Structures are given as C-alpha cells and as structure tokens.
Amino acid sequence: MRRIVCPLAAAACAATVCLPAQAGEVFTGVGTTGFELGFAAKLGESTGIHVDGEFLNYKRTWDNDGVTYDAKVKFSSLGLYGNYFLTERFRLTAGVLIGSRKVTGTGVSSGGQITVNGTTYALQAGDSLGLDVKFPAASPYLGLGFGHADNGPGLGLYFDVGAVFGKPKVKLTPNGNLANTVNQSDVDAEQAKLQDKMNKLRAYPAIKLGLSIGF
Hints:
two-stranded antiparallel ribbon, 12 strands, elongated
C-alpha cells in the first residue's frame, strides 16, 4: 500500500506549487470523516489531485464490558490526495490525512458506582474514569471515487469509498479519589479490552458524497 500512497500523496503536495491557476474546482460534502471543503484539479490526462479540510464533531454513548462511556468524537484534518483516473471520471485515490482525530469522554456512574473489569467501585464527587482515544497524526488513505475530473465550469457530483489506515491508541485514567481506590490491574485490563475493540477501526471507513463547482 505504501508504494501506492506515497507517490500519489507526494504529487498532491507538489501540486500546490505547480497547479495552473485557471484550472480546477472547489467542492464541499459530508461523510464518515465529517464535513469537508476543498479544491481539486487535473495534472494530466489521467492524473490529478485534491486537497481538503475535514471536520467532524459529535457526541455518542457506547458500552464496553459493562462500562458505559459518554464520549465526544472530534476530527480536524487536512487531506492531501493523488488521483489516478481509471476511466474518464472513475478514479483510484491515495493520500494522507494530517491532523487530530480523537475520542474523549468519561465512564458513566450507575448509582454512585462504576464497574471496572468486573469490580465495582464507589464514586465520590469529582471522581471519574477518563477515556482518551487518539489516532495517528498522519494516516494513509486508499480508495475509489467518482468525480474531481475537471470537466469544465458548472456543477458536478463526487463520491468516495475507501479507508483511512492507522491504529488508535486507548488510554483510561482514573481521576479524583478513584485514582486511589481502583486497582491498576483492573484499569489495565479494562483498557486492554477497549483497545481490542478500537483496533477494529485501524481501517476506518471513509465514505463521502458532495457537490463541486468547476471553473
């Protein structure tokens, strides 16, 4: 995969210098990586680039091994992509996302208690089990897409289906008095179970749909 991603990503970076000013399109859309706004252009008959900013911010709750987590998902990334057109409009796209992609939150108490690795602990005011999940600051992308073909002025449609690669790192931190009462072995075991679940996102699905305006 690196043999594909690296050359196309390098082309995307170089394109910010060598692009003709009159060519290209601006685009905006939404997807699993969030809201995006960017610029795309062809470099040759079958090659091109697109660059975008991608932003995602929402809250969700999920359960893991008896612990309920209230969490916020926040992505803020710059995407640099190289395109190789297999047909006039369908393309192979590779590149890299650079920036911050993380999940933060806390374990939710139930009746003033929290269960960590099967052991129940009492919580006092200010106690919490903090959750921190971080994806790599630079993550390669590989996928297939339609659009960004620089077909002249006017409205266009684009979509992408692919994956962003990068293993997330999970950290659980007891706060307040819980840090003194919880067994570290329970925290480590709980963290390992959550890490196993998050490892399924080492290939994070990226599905995008949007509109472009050529000029």
